[in-house]
TrEMBL record:
Pfam families registered for this protein in UniProt: CarbopepD_reg_2 (PF13715)
UniProt keyword terms in alphabetical order: Carboxypeptidase, Hydrolase, Membrane, Protease, Transmembrane, Transmembrane helix
Signal peptide annotation: none
Residues passing through the membrane, by range: 6-28, 40-57
Coiled coil (residue ranges): none
InterPro entries for this protein: CarboxyPept-like_regulatory (IPR008969)
Annotated protein name in UniProt: Carboxypeptidase-like regulatory domain-containing protein
GO MF annotations, alphabetized: carboxypeptidase activity
Keyword Protease found: yes
Top-level division of the source organism's lineage: Bacteria
Length: 445
């Protein structure tokens, strides 16, 4: 690949290029024109190189902070924090904390969260303690309360999703899964995928890094990521005449809807975001679900979706074990962007159940959180794989080499204090190291 010059020593017969942040010096003059200057020229050249390349060698500035509610002072999880006017952004963790790298200071951070008014904060120093307080957005009901209005919004959101389904997004996703049996952590799995997605679901993944730790337990979940990879708000291949999805032509037939209100944002010239509660109709006996969907009433874009259902279809390989009293929660949130289409920001999946084995009944919980980042619309040559019932997470993790440096101080790998305790306990026992096969030893010569 040709090198792009970043500087030329005019008239002195040298040019230099930046290649992977290394200076490469080339002679552009005839040998006779260089001879008389060689002894004093090279020190000058390298001095200038040091000055000109200093900004390129500087590390990015890492900002850390929290986002809180201005009135209650409570920390806000999953709030968006971005450098205003750029695509550089992140989201807060469960504790309302965020980490964001920027090229230089000063910058203006834009913070937003559903149910709160957007706000900005100018950052001038990396040592400055960043605390962004967001005021609550007002919630109003339409002046004319029409019973069909929430159904119109859901139908238009469905049409919008159907129309824009082919628009793709590419990037990465961090997936963390924790299993607790009888309230004790038994499994921890962390994976980074290269991911291809659209406005409704994940379309395909390719593992980039992963690690797994577990201890002996009565059961384990080797493919729980199936629910994250396969769940979507819309499926173009589904029979729409029989679809039980909320976003389908059958919403009036299958669901009861209630408009709770419209959240007004900072931009008062726009309509806001409708909060709609839903539940399946009593006469629908084969499938039950309830939850909330948030829809932008100007663009009909789904902003967030949360659903709870007792219809969990998983099972165990042990014929003597059965799941009872199951409850599956799935939440999807989309990035805060303008227009009709937005990529995924995060997904949460949570399963609670009782595991019955003979007369023994053991409570269990499996939870996962997936955070999407570095998202763009540029296609890649990565071979993304569609989800399959034959997928096994541990098999995929074992297929790649474990890189401990990747996980150390990685700002994307955000954890709550509880998760830190779980991970520290596993790391202390060397659990993650068991995933790495020792290198073959060579006989001494």
């Amino acid at each position: 690949m040709p090198l792009a010059p970043i500087g030329v020593m005019s008239g002195l017969g040298y040019s230099f290029h930046l290649l992977n942040y290394q200076a490469v010096l080339y002679s552009t003059a005839q040998p006779s024109s260089v001879t008389s200057f060689r002894r004093w020229l090279l020190p000058v050249v390298f001095l200038l190189l040091g000055v000109l390349l200093a900004p390129a060698a500087q590390a990015q500035v890492q900002l850390k902070g929290i986002v809180i509610d201005k009135d209650t002072k409570e920390r806000l999880p999953f709030a968006s924090v971005a450098v205003q006017g750029t695509g550089n952004g992140t989201a807060t963790n469960m504790e309302g904390e965020f980490t964001l790298k920027v090229a230089k200071l000063p910058v203006v951070l834009l913070a937003s969260e559903l149910g709160h008014v957007r706000d900005t904060l100018r950052i001038t120093s990396p040592t400055q303690v960043i605390e962004i307080a967001l005021g609550s957005a007002s919630i109003v009901l339409p002046e004319v309360k029409v019973g069909s209005y929430p159904f119109q919004l859901v139908d238009r959101a469905f049409r919008n999703m159907q129309r824009n389904y082919r628009r793709k997004f590419y990037g990465k996703a961090f997936y963390r899964q924790t299993t607790r049996i009888d309230n004790e952590p038994t499994e921890l799995q962390e994976v980074v995928w290269n991911v291809k997605s659209n406005n409704a679901r994940i379309e395909g993944t390719a593992i980039a890094q992963g690690r797994y730790a577990g201890k002996q337990a009565i059961t384990n979940f080797s493919n729980f990521s199936l629910y994250t990879k396969s769940y979507g708000l819309f499926d173009p291949s589904a029979d729409t005449t029989k679809s039980l999805a909320l976003l389908s032509p059958n919403v009036v037939k299958n669901y009861e809807l209630e408009l709770k209100g419209i959240v007004a944002g900072a931009d008062t010239t726009k309509g806001g975001i409708a909060e709609i509660n839903f539940n399946t109709r009593p006469e629908l006996t084969k499938y039950k679900s309830e939850g909330t969907i948030w829809i932008d009433i100007d663009t009909y874009r789904v902003v967030r979706y949360h659903m709870t259902t007792p219809n969990f279809t998983g099972g165990t390989n042990n014929p003597d074990q059965k799941f009872r009293d199951t409850k599956l929660d799935i939440e999807m949130s989309f990035q805060n962007t303008e227009g009709e289409v937005a990529p995924l920001e995060y997904m949460k999946t949570n399963l609670t159940a009782n595991l019955v084995s003979g007369k023994d009944v053991t409570p269990l919980n499996v939870s996962s959180f997936t955070f999407f980042y570095d998202t763009n619309t540029t296609p890649t040559s990565i071979p993304y794989a569609r989800v399959s019932l034959q997928d096994r997470d541990l098999t995929a993790i074992r297929s790649i080499k474990y890189d401990p440096e990747f996980w150390a101080n990685n700002p994307v790998v955000r954890r709550t204090p509880v998760e830190d305790e779980v991970i520290a306990a596993f790391e202390k026992k060397g659990a993650f190291g068991t995933m790495v096969k020792p290198a073959p030893t060579r006989p001494a010569r």
